[in-house]
Amino acid sequence: MIDIAKNIATAPRRTKASVIRELLKITGKPGIISFAGGLPDPELFPYDFMTDSIKRIMEKKGRVAMQYGPTEGLPEFKEEFIKFLEKEEGIKAKPENLLITTASQQALDIVGRLFIDASDPVVVELPSYMGGLQVFKSYGADFVGVKIDDDGVNTVMLEEKLQWLRDQDEHYKFVYLVPDFQNPSGVTLSEKKRKRVIELSEKYNVAIIEDSPYRQIRFEGNAPKMLYRMDKESRKTDNIISLFTLSKTFAPGLRIGIILANENIIKKMVILKQSLDLCTSSLNQLIASEFLKTGYFYEHVSQIKKVYKIKKDTMVGALKKYMPEGVTWTNPEGGLFLWIKLPENVSADEMFEEAIKQNVAYVIGSAFHCDGSGKNTMRMNFSYPTVPEIEEGIKRLAKAVKNRMARK
Prior knowledge:
By secondary structure, the chain is of the alpha/beta class. 47% of the residues lie in helices and 14% in strands. The strands form three sheets. Strands 2-9-8-7-6-3-4-5 form an eight-stranded mixed beta sheet, with helices on both faces. Strands 10-11-14-13 form a four-stranded antiparallel beta sheet. A two-stranded parallel ribbon has the order 1-12.
């Protein structure tokens, strides 16, 4: 057999296994209450709609559903998503502004392929979405981290980093942000900071990747405008590339993602997608089209928001009830996650095995930090476990935290 370590290409050598995927192998054991995965609640999946939808599609458009489709995406789905953008976000788009991808992870991969040369600086949040870090690293990105505050990325520090990169004559390509209910922290970028991000994008001629998988799952407060819309309404720089998915609002098994960008950027991305998978599933796009066209999307998301709010409130209440003094957490207005911060001298990395012994699991926060910091943090998912599991799981986790803090 060939020596794999010696013969594989550079990109696979750079690609590390997802910490979350590796943790799920452990947390899937019987008896463990897991807050680790970013999984939607399977009890809420629209099973009946899927069954009826597929039957209708196969009766009326079976030949389209089972055939190859255009790389750009089916016109039927694009048409419905354009209507959705205008209704929900006040964004006017054309079919040429959209590329339908095999979930938003492929969208991130296409972004990496399009922009990153080895050693290119890429600006990311501290912490940032692990899946983005993983794919950008595989293309050789050198990360420049910017800390986040309670209202999103620190824009003063962001400008300092961009100015420093410009002074170094570095070929920085883009800033990657998850502005709504950020994964992993759950915080949302304020409208004031969004305006500043748009200004910095123009000033430093840098693209902004607006990754927005959770935006529709808002169960409290008011939503700030999307960066893409704000850019169009102000300077029209076309520097914003927005990524969407139906994985959190419909079903992750559908693997539907959408890229919204300037048509010249989309043209380049289409060529890259051709080399990846030719096209996204026609059947899945037709199902997604029905999901939006029938209006079932709004009914379904309304139910998701009600359930997730109850679960989030349960988790926050349990944290207040069981956690010792010195432990803090975010209280998001939507999404799937909240973020726990332990005292600086307490490592969530080191505590993980102890938590497993207590039959509870989380994702270590350092995995979301491009610089390896954040060892005293952890990401908690509240969408997947049941309400009783959340209560009991936090109780178990608090016991592990108290034991670790007592030793420190």
